[in-house]
């Protein structure tokens, strides 16, 4: 590989970021209200405090499901996915996200 090809590959790789969108379903024994309260008030504090999350993710966003908004979308031509919550993870490489979800601290504290 020539130096020019290597530089192009390095620049392109450096410019690419990886996003992973996850749809979350509450446990059957958890009420909608309890899930939404936890998801809204607690989860991001717990998840964001894990060292590997701080180290590997560029950003983390979440949203909770809204039955009224879902029904409005169903009345349009948009496709819908029924879920209680959604999260978007951004990292430089997909392996950085994998490191988060295979980390022992995450398994212990962040997967509630």
UniProtKB/TrEMBL annotation:
The chain crosses the membrane at residues 6-24. It comes from the Eukaryota. The keyword Transmembrane helix applies. InterPro entries: Dimeric_a/b-barrel, EthD_dom. Keywords: Membrane, Transmembrane, Transmembrane helix. It holds the Pfam family EthD. This is EthD domain-containing protein. It comes from Lepraria finkii. Belongs to the tpcK family. Residues 27-108 form the EthD domain. The keyword Cell division does not apply. SUPFAM superfamilies: Dimeric alpha+beta barrel (SSF54909).
């Amino acid at each position: 590989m020539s130096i020019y090809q290597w530089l192009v590959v390095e620049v392109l790789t450096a410019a690419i970021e990886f996003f992973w969108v996850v749809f979350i379903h509450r446990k059957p024994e958890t009420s909608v209200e309890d899930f939404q309260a936890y998801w809204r008030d607690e989860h991001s504090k717990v998840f964001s405090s894990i060292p590997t999350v701080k180290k590997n993710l560029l950003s983390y966003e979440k949203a909770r499901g809204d039955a009224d908004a879902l029904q409005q979308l169903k009345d349009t031509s948009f496709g819908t996915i029924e879920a209680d919550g959604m999260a978007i993870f951004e990292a430089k490489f997909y392996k950085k996200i994998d490191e988060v979800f295979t980390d022992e601290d995450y398994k212990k504290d962040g997967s509630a």
